[in-house]
Amino acid sequence: MKRPASSTALGMAFAASLALQAPSCEAWSTPSASLVTPASSRRVSSLGTTPQQSPSFLSMYSRRGESSSHHDTSMDVLSRNAVAVDAQDFRTAHRLPKSTQQQQQPLLDFWMPVLSSALLVTGNTFGAGSLVLPQLAAEPGLGPSAALFGLAYLVNLVSGLCFANVAIQQFETSEDGDDVPSSFKEFVQTNLNSPALAVIISIVSFLVNSLVFSFDMSRVGVVFSSLVDPTLSMSLWGATLWGLMATLSPSQMSQAASVCVMVLFGTFGSLLLPGLASLTNPLADWFTPGTAALTGDPSVFWHSLSEITPVIVMSMVFQNIVPSVVKMLDYDRTKTTTALCLGSLLPLAMYVSWCWACLGQGGIDLTTIMSGIDSNPLLTVFSLATLMGSSIGCSLSCASELDIFVKQAKKEATEAVVSPKEEETDNSAKDERFQIPSALATVALPFGVNMAFSNGGDLIGALHVAGGLGTPLLYGTIPVLMTLKQQERQQSKEEGNGMFANAGLGVLGVASTGMLCGNLLDVATDMIAPAVLPTAMAATSAVGM
Question: Model-level pTM?
Answer without folding.
Answer: 0.72
